[in-house]
What does this fold into?
Amino acid sequence: MLISEFLASDYKEQHFVVVLGHPVSHSKSPAIHNAALAYHQLNVRYHALDCPESEQQLIPELFAHPNFIGSNVTIPLKKRIVSYLDELDETASEIGAVNTVVPDGKGLLVGYNTDSYGFMAPLKQVHGIHTAVVLGTGGASRAVCYALSTFGVEKLYLVSRTSKKQENHSDFPSDVQRIGYDALGDAIRHSELIVNTTPVGMHPATGHSPMPEQCLPLLADKYCYDIIYNPPETTLLKKAKAHGAQTIGGLDMFIHQAARSFELWFDKPMPLQLVRKVLLDMISNSKS
Ligand code: ATR
It folds into this structure.
């Protein structure tokens, strides 16, 4: 549904939360948030609203609606949404991207980024990460680098296929070194954690992996974290596990970023087991 269709419909008569993106119909966020809303018996509905360029002018009207409770924001709007907001919390401001919008109750719209919180959730129990490798240099990579940097990781190898873009990480506490895939082997040898933030291996092209075959034996005893959650175990993680790595999939990150957003809007916990089951059911159904 487009924002314009939503604003012309009866859906807006009930309190609502939305996720804005383009395209957005594939989003799994409505399913897990609506399950959490039903669990808490809250009379609020979460909708996925498609927001192509032509609809962006409607964002202020949507956010000013009396039934608006809050919003998630996804690709390609995580940076652009900032111009519609009044304030950013520190994490969103450092990352330069927002995935959660919360009205402060006094007429101001505040932007948060819960992706880095979600990313860190499965690493809470992990100690001794001094150096890490991050594959990919897009928006998700920046949230991951920020999270690792504030977690105390001293050195980050940022791996890119190209030397063209020059994203700036000089504001992060870690030493961030940009390298090519030709230098990946050496970087892995010096690291305890390898993170994939590229879309390679994501549904439906699940057979692919961003890791060159010759680097796989170097993953023994390392942590290998893929932020992709569909499939829950990517080809990269299967191969890494077969070579003796400890693997972490993207489901926890997805669930915990959603849980943090839910808390910001409702001050209530997301029922984690329930939403994990809802998400896994959706993923296995989408395969058939
Ligand atoms: P974003 O995170 O900005 O939405 P994305 O399409 O999900 O973008 O891709 C994230 C990053 O993965 C890209 O910035 C790209 O980084 P580099 O260009 O620096 O390598 C990387 N990426 C995208 N497609 C890729 C592919 N087919 N193989 C390897 N890396 C890829």
Notes: The first strand starts at residue 15 and ends at 21.
